[in-house]
Amino acid sequence: MLLQLAWRNLWRNPNRSFITMASVWCAVVLAVAMSSLQKGVFDHLISNVVSFYSGYVQVHRTGYQSEQTLENSFPLTDSIQKAVLSSPGVAAATPRLEAFALASTGEKTKGCLVAGIAPDTEERVTRLKSKIVAGAYLQDSAQTILIAEGLAKRLQTGLGDTVILLGQGYYGTTAAGKYAVGGILRFGSPALNDQVVFLPLAAAQHWLDAPGLATTLVVSPEKPTATERIAAQLRASLPPDFETLTWQEMMPDIHEHIQADTASSAIILGVLYLLISFGIFATLLMMLAERQREFGMLVALGMKKRQLAQMVMFESVLITLTGCLFGILASIPLVWWLKEHPIRITGEMAEVYEKFGFEAIFPASLAPSIFWNQALAVLIIGLLLSLYPIAKVLFLKPVDAMRA
Amino acid sequence: MKTTVIDIHNVSKIYNPDTIPVHAVNGVHLHIERGEFTALVGPSGSGKTTLLNIIGGLDVPTEGKVVINDTDITALSPNRLIQFRLHNIGFVFQSFNLIPVLTASENVEFIMLLQGAPKAERERRVKELMHAVGLSDKMDVRPAQLSGGQQQRVAVARALASKPQFILADEPTANLDSQSATNLLDMMAQLNREEGMTFIFSTHDARVIERARRVITLVDGRIASDTASVSVA
Ligand SMILES: Nc1ncnc2c1ncn2[C@@H]1O[C@H](COP(=O)(O)OP(=O)(O)OP(=O)(O)O)[C@@H](O)[C@H]1O
Ligand SMILES: [Mg+2]
């Protein structure tokens, strides 16, 4: 009954309610578009850089993060793999033996990052197979390599061609090997696309004269949000000669960028909502002033002040939530369009993003949380703003109100 | 047999006691019996509204007490008083009686909703009362589309809907033309005769005063005269 009454009261002054709702509508559309673009960019960034290569969590021998050499590798034993895999929340883990090397075709030579991988588990952790644009995925025992598209172009090499990898093996030995290109990969991240080469772990160990060694265990959590917790668990359970890093720690600049950006947009949204709050509040005050006599009459008849306060609260919440609902309805197609037609930026900003290692495109995110968050924000605004009218109603004296 | 519904005992109301005290009501003793049809008259500022508000539990007296059917309403807490009004007192105000966003019948139903009456009973009673006040054809019309007289009748129907002990009406005809005022009074008188509903109303209107069976005259907050009218047909 109160809800229905509140709803009808909203339409007593349709213009005013409409304008108030329209202001909420605008704010919500803007806020959704903004958060969705931002979340989209970060998701894009994280999936480009984090889930496609580095993984959410890595385990190394202590010291590897600051000095990435083979001397800081560790023996890949069953016990370490089991210790990682048995940690709660860990979905999968895959070992790598990584080294910087020169790739040469005879005519051209380029620097590259060589990663010896376990093809099956690598696929589970980073979905490497999905990046193949030509050729076939690695086989455990094969002597073939996968090479990223950009690097292949720069080396002017293709499927079936031979590439020579030159590097420094364990304890300074010279590592040299001849491999056939078995597949071409395409990465969104320019940093990866221009420099990675994959080969089977055994082949890499042989090439670097590092039998049984690995530099990295890439750990994939069941839920990305559990990253911190899993890292903390591993730190506690693994022997001290292992270090555990989250992607935020491995790539602090990206993490800081995300945090700074999130904070600044939160401030912008806060100001936006503050501005519309004034408008909503003005509407509520006018409504309150106009209806003094009516409120007095209602209490005189025997309406409990609690009920009256509830009605006022419903009115405030309804006016904001209705605006919000239409805002969300309007922003869904907008955001969907922005997702399908991502903004691609060029120039200086693009370079900045490429430095972070990902393509400068801005797809929007359709994550439900974006919409919920706005609805929640608006609901809270509606509730907070109704506090003053509620207080007024609770102190209302029917005789005075009716005389007003 | 006469039953006292309202017992007003030595009631006084002083406004602004600290600055310029106004004795709006001054030592009033009064008994209202069930079934009365009583007018409260007197010059402007004589304290009619103040006294009605005190009887209706909308205002608290500075002194004295008001007992309604054994309940001393001057001793009730504000929340209990609201509850008491809802179940015991019907109100008809001079204006701003109805909720503008509700239809005539919804306005009548509203008070029963507040009382928590079951739906079937509400619907039955709304029909019955709208018929009793002669507005069966205006059930679904909003107050703005009703004439002043029709609005006051809806207010009377609403006051009746709560099944109160009595109905208080402060100048119910003040905003009405004389024809509508006569009609409203006829209707109230009929409800008084047929249903035995007790009415207490204040008025300036001589024709309205004529219809009352008891006329209490206030002057400067005191009862100047209290007469049983003989002119009733
Ligand atoms: N809230 C108030 N504060 C101060 N004085 C008041 C207040 N309400 C009423 N009064 C004074 O109390 C006296 C009685 O007022 P009341 O409204 O009861 O008279 P009334 O008989 O209803 O008059 P009218 O016929 O004009 O409606 C008047 O002198 C009035 O000025
Ligand atoms: Mg008066």
Mean pLDDT metric of chain A: 88
Beta strand % of chain A = 15-25%
Number of helices, counting only DSSP H or I runs of 4 residues or more of chain B: 7
Give me the CATH superfamily of the domain at 37-43 and 77-228 in chain B.
P-loop containing nucleotide triphosphate hydrolases
Q: From the helix content, strand content and strand pairing of chain A, which structural class follows? A: alpha+beta
The third-level CATH topology of the domain at 37-43 and 77-228 in chain B is Rossmann fold
Q: Identify the biggest protein-protein contact and residues per side.
A: A-B, 21 and 24 residues
Into which percentage range does the β-strand content of chain B fall? 25-35%
Describe it for me?
The complex is a heterodimer of chains A (404) and B (233). Chain A is an alpha+beta fold and 404 residues long. Chain A has two domains: 2-49 and 254-403, no CATH class; 63-239, no CATH class. Helix content of chain A is 55%, strand content 20%. Chain A contains 16 helices and 14 strands. In chain A, the strands form three sheets. Chain A has a six-stranded mixed barrel with strand order 3-4-9-6-8-7, surrounded by four helices. Chain A has a two-stranded antiparallel sheet with strand order 2-10. The radius of gyration of chain A is 30 Å and the shape is elongated. The mean pLDDT of chain B is 92. In chain B, the strands form two sheets. A six-stranded mixed β-sheet of chain B has the order 6-7-8-3-9-10, sandwiched between helices. Chain B contains seven helices and ten strands. Chain B has a domain at 37-43 and 77-228: 3-Layer(aba) Sandwich (Rossmann fold). Helix content of chain B is 36%, strand content 27%. The interface between A and B is medium-sized, with 21 and 24 residues. Magnesium ion binds at residues 48-49, 170 of chain B.
